Write the structure tokens for this entry.
Amino acid sequence: MPKLPVDNSFLDLSDYGRPLGKAIANSLKSTGITPIHVTIWFILAGLIAVLFILTGHYWLAALFLIIKSILDAADGELARVKQTPSYTGRYFDSIADILLNFIILIAICHITDGNILLALLAFISIQFQGTLYNYYYVILRNKYHGDETSRIFENETPLAMPREEQKTVDFLFTIYKILYGLFDKSIYVLDPNAPQGHAFPNWLMTIVSTMGLGFQLLLISIMLVSGLAHYIVPFFIFYSLAVLVLIAIRKLL
């Protein structure tokens, strides 16, 4: 099952890794490699990128950040082609993403001799932006009966799917709530009626997709190789203002 039916799809600028992700998933369809294995691969790619950031090899860092984004798409695609969706994979993926984001921002703070508090604010900003993207995207996926592994409201531990253990889902969901709960609640408070509203126009979702993790990592990559590492932290802090603007536009529509 695709994330969204073709007729309801939009230009997702954050999802540039999807075509290669699908190719990787299709190549692994008949193997014993699972989506969890691919998630572990993207964790390793992210950590290698951090190592290259810290050692000043910015082109290699950018390459591995892009590889991370591709593999981030591939794990979900592999779950779809193998027809093995799981909450274990969904929460493991999200937990890995937020921890890598934190490590990447701390590494950037280190190489730029930046202020750690500003780096933490940039991390919060990135998560805040990504949460808006995910919130609107999951609403669309549920509205049009796309992939429903992600839920609009992560309030209760879901029942484990076949082939996964409930205790594993319980554990990962608890970690997820600790890491993401405040961001989810904040976006919901700002736009609680979004699930009941009209379908979001494609152009709005394309703009919102600039806040998705894939596009964020692409921007970080471009800024690293362009000698703009010092501007990464202030950029993401400032760009959080767009969250309020986009929510206002959504409400007007």
The longest helix spans residues 116-143. The chain has a mean pLDDT of 93.
